[in-house]
Every structure is written in structure tokens, then in C-alpha cells.
Amino acid sequence: MAEKDPDVAHEVLRSIRQIVRRISEHSKYLSSEAGLTVPQLMCLKAIGEIDERGRDAEITVAMVGKSVTLSAATVSRIVDRLVTAGLVARERRAVDRRKVCLSLTAAGLERYQTLPTPLQETFVARFKALEPGERDHLLSALRRISSLMDATDLDAAPLLVLGEDIKQADGEG
Questions:
Q1: Is the pTM of this model over 0.85?
Q2: Could you say which of 34, 39, 60, 168 has the lowest number of CB atoms within 10 Å?
Q3: pLDDT in tens, 109-128
């Protein structure tokens, strides 16, 4: 039985590598299709979705951050890039000049309406279709693998992107 353990360990590592490669390939595909990094795409999508749900809603960086599970500081830098690209507008409200609200520009709305589907959306839909027991088992196994790789203390948003993508999207890279 001990002889098979190295083979199983290598298969686990191979599966992890396949996941990482898939994330990388999909990130490159989205970047070439939409001309945006995954975090930029997710923030643009969040602004559009929040706007659709509540017409005339005041969309803030904090709201977008909550939607995409990134810090407000990171989202603010990503939004800076979207503003520079002419896809998002920032404006102060007349009533409360401290409040800065976001909206899609005409170009941003056009881009929003044709955005490709991010990998995590496909994954979440497929994952939710699994039986609850299987979902729990997979989560438990992944948490254990994370622990075995000393990765449990790493901060990670539930976005399927490489770490460099977020840094590039917010101007750090």
C-alpha cells in the first residue's frame, strides 16, 4: 500500500497543476477577448449587475468590493484603470460631496453587455449542482490540501486568477 502513495501524491500534484494552468489559460483568453484582466472584468461586471438590480442606485467602491470579495483599496485601483480606459465614470454626489459613485460609461455598458463568462462563474454553477455531501467532501479535501501546502494563512479572494493578475489590475505589477 505504501508503494502507491507516491503515485497518488503525484496525481494530486498533477491535478493542482492542471487547475493552475486552466486558470492561467482562461485569464489569458479573457484578457484577449475582453481586453481586460480578470479583476477588471469582474469589477466592470459587478458595476453593471448592481446597476441592473437597482436602477438609480448609488454604486460605491465598497459595494463593488463586497460583490467581488476584494478590498476597497484594491477595487479603487482597479476602477482607476477602468476610468482611464473610459469604461467607468466616477462622480461626486451633489448632496454628499464626500460620496463618490461609479457608473458605466456608454463604452463600459457596451463592453459589459458582451463580457465573456469568467471561469469562476462556470465553476460555481457546476459546483452548486453537486449533491451537498459531495460539495462538503470536496471542500474538506481542498482545505486539507491547502493545509498540507502551508497555504491556509494566505489571503485569497474567491476569484480564479493568478496573484499577479490582481496586482497588474490594480497598478502594482
A1: no
A2: 60
A3: 999 998 888 888 889 999 99
